UniProtKB/TrEMBL annotation:
Lineage: Bacteria, Pseudomonadati, Pseudomonadota, Alphaproteobacteria, Hyphomicrobiales
Protein name: Riboflavin biosynthesis protein RibD
Reactions listed under catalytic activity: 2,5-diamino-6-hydroxy-4-(5-phosphoribosylamino)-pyrimidine + H2O + H(+) = 5-amino-6-(5-phospho-D-ribosylamino)uracil + NH4(+); 5-amino-6-(5-phospho-D-ribitylamino)uracil + NADP(+) = 5-amino-6-(5-phospho-D-ribosylamino)uracil + NADPH + H(+)
Binding site for substrate: 188, 208, 211, 311
Pathway assigned in UniProt: Cofactor biosynthesis; riboflavin biosynthesis; 5-amino-6-(D-ribitylamino)uracil from GTP: step 2/4; Cofactor biosynthesis; riboflavin biosynthesis; 5-amino-6-(D-ribitylamino)uracil from GTP: step 3/4
SUPFAM superfamilies: Cytidine deaminase-like (SSF53927), Dihydrofolate reductase-like (SSF53597)
EC number(s) recorded for this UniProt protein: 3.5.4.26, 1.1.1.193
Organism: Rhizobium chutanense
Pfam families: dCMP_cyt_deam_1, RibD_C
Binding site for NADP(+): 158, 200, 204
Length: 376
């Protein structure tokens, strides 16, 4: 590769661009494309909301005739197969691009290496692997679903100074300040789905939506692990299910399951009536053992969910940690003291599981965020 500092600079711009539509491109990855001619950006685009059109044809259309002889910086290998749209590699060839710089090759077997071969066969210079680590980070959700057949899982925990995540019987307890909570809202906005256990859903009665002005439409699908269909019809989740999708994951054998904080009803008729009532309110009921994430996650992937944020509570967090199915940990630590009656955090900074690397520390007001990522 003949990579220059300018190549890295323009690729970094393409990666930043790709993050704009995270969580909004359905099963397609959010890709960034920047077209550069004589050191000047002549076209740029990100995969459109909904997944189409792809980034490359949009950026090429913006560049127009200036694309001939230019360099295209793309965060993911251009597609080479005919789907609902023509291959992006063909578009790059048709516009006369002289060089294509790629961050990450596509693991999709329909594309992997074929896009690069198509470009080179047309006489276009191709360099791959530029800022690959950064590119993989921005494409983590797509890459995980492609290679592991499951969503990329982020576990978010807010822990008090005395190691608690809440207080028994008091519903939602503010642990972090407004700056940290705003950061969590931004994370929700770029995530496909958010998940809590039934204990959290009942005790906290959360909305789990994005409340940043202007980004409300980017609220993720809301998922509740609820083996016995105990989610109250009066809950905020049920009451808003027609505005923002809610999926309740119920056990196929509810009488044999134990929900967080509640015993399952034993009357099958009662369970059936609750299912009917939830579905009438717009809630989708899915039967899949909620406490076996190794089964649940592939089922979510088949629904186009590539990224999943696990937010509560302690048992649910421990469930995913013990299964080894957490890819990223966001651990907020606050100076607040919960005291007597606190709910102990399943995880602290001193006991991060092996296999995770510390990726950085950020400060939000008086709160500290440490981020860890699985190394394999």
């Amino acid at each position: 590769m003949s990579i220059t500092p300018d190549d890295e600079r323009f690729m970094a711009a393409a990666i930043r661009l790709s993050r704009r539509h995270l969580g909004r491109t359905t099963t397609n990855p959010s890709v960034g494309c920047v077209i550069v001619r004589d050191g000047v950006v002549v076209g740029q685009a990100v995969t459109a909301v909904g997944g189409r059109p792809h980034a490359e044809p949009q950026a090429l259309a913006e560049a127009g005739a200036a694309a001939r002889g230019a360099t295209a910086y793309v965060t993911l290998e251009p597609c080479s197969h005919h789907g609902k749209t023509p291959p992006c590699a063909e578009a790059l060839i048709a516009y006369g691009v002289a060089r294509v710089v790629i961050s990450v090759t596509d693991p999709d077997p329909r594309v992997s290496g074929r896009g690069i071969s198509m470009l080179r066969h047309a006489g276009i210079e191709v360099d791959a692997g530029v800022l690959e680590a950064e590119g993989r980070h921005s494409l983590a959700a797509y890459l995980t679903r492609q290679t592991k057949n499951r969503p990329y899982v982020t576990l978010k925990l807010a822990v008090s100074a005395d190691g608690m995540i809440g207080r028994e019987g008091e519903g939602q307890v503010a642990i972090t300040g407004p700056e940290a909570r705003a950061e969590v809202q931004a994370l929700r906005a770029e995530t496909d789905a958010i998940l809590v256990g039934i204990g959290t859903a009942i005790s906290d009665d959360p909305l789990l939506t994005v409340r940043i002005p202007g980004l409300e439409a980017q609220s993720p699908v809301r998922i509740v692990l609820d083996p016995s269909l105990a989610l109250p019809l009066t809950s905020k989740l049920v009451q808003t299910a027609r505005q923002v999708p809610v999926i309740v994951v119920a056990s196929e054998e509810a009488s044999l399951s134990q929900a967080e904080g509640s015993a399952p009803p034993t009357d099958p008729t009662d369970i059936d009536s609750r299912r009917t009532a939830l579905e009438a309110a717009g809630v989708e009921v899915v039967y899949c053992n909620p406490y076996h994430p190794e089964i649940l996650l592939p089922a979510l992937a088949t629904r186009g969910i590539s990224s999943l944020l696990v937010e509560g509570g302690a048992k649910t967090a421990r469930l995913f940690l013990d299964a080894g199915l957490v890819d990223r940990i966001q651990l907020y630590q606050a100076p607040v003291v919960i005291g007597e009656g606190g709910i102990e955090s399943p995880l602290r900074a001193t006991d991060i599981p092996s296999g995770f690397a510390h990726r950085g520390t950020s400060l939000f007001g008086v709160d500290r965020l440490d981020e860890y990522e699985r190394e394999n």
